[in-house]
Amino acid sequence: MSSVTNSLLGSVPKFTGDNYHSWKFAISMVLRRTGAWDILLDKLDESKPASQKKTRSEEKDDKDKASKLDQALTTIGLTVDTSQYQYIENCSDGAKAWKALMDVL
Q: Where is this region: Disordered (predicted)?
């Protein structure tokens, strides 16, 4: 993560379960800055059909998306209180962690 991202993370309040809306806004700003926000939202949108055969360009794009989703998981994980780990500790990417925290509410 860049020093700018680290600085932004320091300004995000830890998600405690009681401050979801303020945490959600702040963390979405960080995810937008890192380029992970749109990818996370796309992953949450299950209505998009998956392509059967992928070109090399699409495969590279998938790897880039997977990297961004991993970065999103790290970013989310670093901004939740330890009391909330139980909801995201088994999530494999940021979209799954985001959904898990939304489902708690």
A: 48-67
Question: Closest Cα partner for 23 from 91, 85, 92, 76?
Answer: 76
What DSSP string runs through 10-64? HTSPPB-SS-HHHHHHHHHHHHHHHT-HHHHHHHH-TTSPPPSS--HHHHHHHHH
Q: What is the pLDDT of residues 55-73, one digit of tens each?
A: 888 888 889 999 999 999 9
pTM of the model as a whole: 0.84
Question: The domain containing residue 35 runs over which residues?
Answer: 3-46+53-104
**If residue 22 lies in a helix (H) or strand (E), which one and from where to where?**
helix 20-34
Instruction: Tell me the percentage of the chain whose pLDDT exceeds 90.
Output: 70
85's tokens: 């780990």
Q: Return the bridge partners of 15, or none.
A: 80
Tell me the residue length of the chain. Answer: 105
| Both structure tokens of 19 | 């401050």
